[in-house]
Amino acid sequence: MPIFTQETYKQPRRAERLLDVTIRDFSGGWNVVDNDLNMKTKFAKLLQNLQLGEDGSIEVRQGTKLFSSLDGLTTGAVNCTYYNGHVIIVGEDGVVVKVDSAGNARVLFDNSVAEHLSGSPGPWSATAFASFAEFNGQLIICNGVNKPLIVSQNMTATYLNDPAVGTNAFTPIGKYVIAHDRYLIIAGNTDNPDRLFISSTDTSGVFVGDAGPNDAVNIDLGSRIPQGSANIKGLGRFRDKIMVAFENAILVGTLGAFDEEDHIPSFDDVIEEHGSLSHRVLSTIGEDMLFCDHVGVSSANKALFTGSVRSERLSQLIDPEIQKDVSRFTSTTELENRTFAVYNSIQQSYMLFIPNAGDSRQVTETRCFVYRRIRALKIDAWFEYNNWNWTSSCVSALKRVFFTKGTELFILGQEQDPLYKDREGSEEMFDDVTSFSDYTGWSPVASIANSGVSIPFTWELPWSDNKQRFLSKASRYINLDTDGNERFNVQMFVDNLYEDRTNFGESYIDETVFDDELGWDVEVLDPTLSMTFVGGDGPGYGSDEYGQYMGGGRPTRHEGLYAWTTKYKLFKLRLEGDAKGPLKFISITLAYQPGSIRR
């Protein structure tokens, strides 16, 4: 047996191990319910103005561009729809405007048009709400204040009436209108808030009281509601069913059943604890109908074997954020008038818009909660669009999404026709390519080609321990796979150190503070590491022909190592920036050395 002396024995040295962790699964989307100490890295604590792409990456959302101005035609848009090659817009003053495919805006219905109608019936009154339905190739518009309008295919408007006698004496006034199964249905009458007005078969202007042949029927639904208000909040369609939404329930009905010559609609099913904020948040999407109530977003679909309509919550991961905005409203009427949704068919996304204040005079932003679901690609995620303040939206025959804001109509970019800045043609940035602190710009613009404001984005991942919670780690390098040419900032927080505790808030404009020497409570972050990068298609330092990348930004288009040195047990990443061009995140890789359990 050999004998080792002190001179011959040497303690073996531990080999340094450089490990790496790569984050490339972002399929979870936005999640505010789970604690970010327990969340998987496929979720994001913040995902603002970013979206989950079809290729699994995280990409900056599309921007918007001015499509038409309604100045001089109406005081401001209330709601809009697409009909017969035109965007139809109802204004706050009751004026109806049409905008053609070239962006030319003209009055469709106002006082002068009404005066030339038979009997000079007068114009629409000022209104805060409008709804639309297409029936037999014609467009019907309701506002809850005046008799409905009907727009023909030759783009002329008149009051909806019984075509046989030309009178609208029995045409009901209502806020909500929908076409379903050979019938036009109107609801939301002030005097009869629980009543459905169902037209005669295959006609839009014949209701109860009009001359025969007439199988129109009115039906009161209040006694069928098991709980909550009996006032109808909206109408929707789902397959062969009509869905009548209330505050805390949805009635499922069937039309077209007759007892001899009498139309007998049946409402034999009710979905409890699921209601709707507004008629405008109901969207029928293939095999589902999506809607939002005071809790969150739900869907109605058919059970596989029984065929009965069932409902399920879709927004559990972000419900607190929806509830936070909804709770700011003290008036159900304001909530009903100003919340809305649209379905973006190209992106396959349900877009829900809720203003950030209950008082319309205090609204600074209308948050957009986006739910994207593509089952074939296993995409099922939420994200948030902000820095918007739209009042209504619609989708064209070519599936282009339009928004209204005041007297302006905007179009949303898409992958085949991208827009990389917001409100192009309406606002522009300063000479140093910055805008105001709320990301608005100067208006009007001097140059449409150079107009628009940048899109601010934030992506914050949960805390992570590299599956070694007890061990300390020595961070060494960072690598990112990206597409696009925009700059962005990467921040790293360690060991639950997130906010700057030494910051006592912001002072007033005159640099004074409160009597206790504290200022306004403003969150100030305290990252351990921070570094600026340029997207994978960016030219890199000093190579851009316009010089906008001079002085900063490390290119991610090559495999060079960027030092990223700190020590941690837990880490959190946050990526943010102001995009004026394309940018897509494909993966993030960190290299580190594992250490002992002692920090």
Notable characteristics:
599 residues; mainly beta; 6-stranded antiparallel sheet; 6-stranded mixed sheet; 3 helices; 3% helix; elongated
Structure commentary:
It contains three helices and 44 strands. It is mainly beta.
Low-confidence region ranges? none
What structural class should be given to the helix and strand makeup?
Answer: mainly beta
Radius of gyration: 29 Å
In terms of DSSP E residues, the strand content is 35-45%
Q: How many strand elements?
A: 44
Give the overall shape: elongated
If you average the pLDDT, what whole number results?
89
How is the main sheet built? 6 strands, antiparallel
Oligomer: single chain
**How many DSSP helices?**
3
Q: Alpha-carbon distance between the termini? A: 42 Å
In short:
This protein is mainly beta. The chain has three helices and 44 strands.
Topology (SSEs and partners):
Layout: E1 19-23, E2 29-30, E3 43-44, E4 46-48, E5 50-52, E6 58-60, E7 64-69, E8 77-83, E9 86-91, E10 96-99, E11 105-109, H1 111-115, E12 131-135, E13 138-142, E14 149-151, E15 157-159, E16 176-180, E17 183-187, E18 195-198, E19 217-220, E20 234-238, E21 241-245, E22 249-254, E23 258-259, E24 262-263, E25 266-272, E26 283-285, E27 288-292, E28 297-302, E29 309-313, H2 319-326, H3 332-338, E30 340-344, E31 349-355, E32 366-374, E33 379-385, E34 392-395, E35 401-405, E36 408-412, E37 455-460, E38 473-484, E39 487-494, E40 529-534, E41 554-555, E42 562-568, E43 571-579, E44 583-594
Parallel strand pairs: 2-3, 40-41
Antiparallel strand pairs: 1-44, 4-37, 5-6, 6-44, 7-36, 8-9, 9-10, 10-11, 12-13, 13-14, 14-15, 16-17, 17-18, 18-19, 20-21, 21-22, 22-25, 23-24, 26-27, 27-28, 28-29, 30-31, 31-32, 32-33, 34-35, 35-36, 37-43, 38-42, 38-44, 39-40, 39-43
